[in-house]
Amino acid sequence: MRKLLLFIISVVCICSISNAQSYKSNYTFQKNVYQVAALQVPFDEDAVKDAMIDYMQSHGFKEAHYKDFLVFRDVPMDKNSSAVSDAYFIIDRKSRSEKDITVISLLPVKKGETLSPSSIEDSSYTRIAMVYLDSLKRNVQSYSLTKLIEAQQKTLDKTKAKMVDLKNDSGDIAKKIRNYESELAQNKIDQENQTKAISSIATGDQAALAKAHKKMDKLMDNQTDYEKKLRNYKADLETNTKDRETQQALFEKESETLNALRQRHQNLGTVSH
User: Fold this and answer.
1) Are strands 85-95 and 69-75 parallel, antiparallel or unpaired?
2) Which residues are CB-neighbours of 212 under 8 A, at least 6 positions away?
3) 155-268 belongs to CATH 1.10.287
């Protein structure tokens, strides 16, 4: 019940973050505090950064870097104006304990100017940056989910491949067990026949007796070897069975994760770039 409650809380948190709008925040850079537009998304920072770069590049904006900023030049943030600005993005995880939540901060800078307190647009421009961030949110989420789905599918494929390998190994081990059981059964028959053969040899025929006993010793050595191999292969089969059960449980869990991601993407809807 506790696990179910935690899962429900987790889903609610993700949904609330997914539906959250951008907000005003502050960012400190070189001892100066700047007002920025910020947005939280429920994905790790690498996926979000890749999503931002993919989206901006698909709209003709080239990626650049300045210190910790991801920069795109000449971005028309206001649909109602022909003015353009340089978009300075900071993309970072929310905290060490919330690695799967990323905060996107956007600081608009006057076209062609270097980042400095004097080059920042009027604080009222933050509202435009917030609207612009909101317009990116769905694309960022869609891209990030797609990447997560692709990664999860690869993980699931690897688990499935391992399951197939374990199943094939199980068949090979079972075959070896059958073969050695057959060898052991035949060995016992051969020992019985050899015992009869020894009994039928005349007491004085030392050469024949020595040869017969040597053959019996060989049969007994083979019996010991077969029994040892049978024990080992049966132990291997038991281990294989446990491994297959573990992999099956892992496969089911990973399948549930993949289905949940696909459902999230479906709920998000198709995004046109």
Assistant:
1) antiparallel
2) 194, 197, 198, 201
3) yes
How far apart are alpha carbons 46 and 52 in whole angstroms?
10
Burial 223-253 (b: 16+ CB within 10 A, else e): beebeebbeebeebbeebeebbeebeeeeee
Domain ranges in the chain? 18-146, 155-268
For the cut 70, the answer to whether the pLDDT of residue 209 exceeds it is yes
Alpha carbon of 132 to those of 38, 140, 170: distances in Å?
11, 12, 57
Mean pLDDT of 160-168: 97
Token output for 76: 């028309």
- Sequence-distant (≥ 6) Cβ neighbours of residue 68 within 8 angstroms: 29, 90
pLDDT at 119: 55
**What are all long-range contacts of 16-24, with beta carbons under 8 Å and residues at least 24 apart?**
17/41, 17/42, 17/101, 18/42, 18/141, 18/264, 18/268, 21/130, 21/134, 22/129, 22/130, 22/131, 22/133, 22/134, 22/137, 23/130, 24/126, 24/130
Cα gap 149→146, rounded to integer Å: 5
Nearest-10 Cα torsion for 148, 149, 150, 151: 50
The pair of structure tokens assigned to 224 is: 């010991």
**What secondary structure letter does DSSP report for 120?**
B
- CATH assignment of 18-146, among 1.10.3470, 2.60.120, 3.30.530, 1.10.287: 3.30.530
Return the pLDDT at 184. Answer: 96
* Two structure tokens written together for 66: 């300045």
- Is 134 in contact with 22 (CB distance < 8 Å)? yes
CA 71 to chain centre: 30
- Per the DSSP assignment, residues forming a β-bridge with 36 are 25
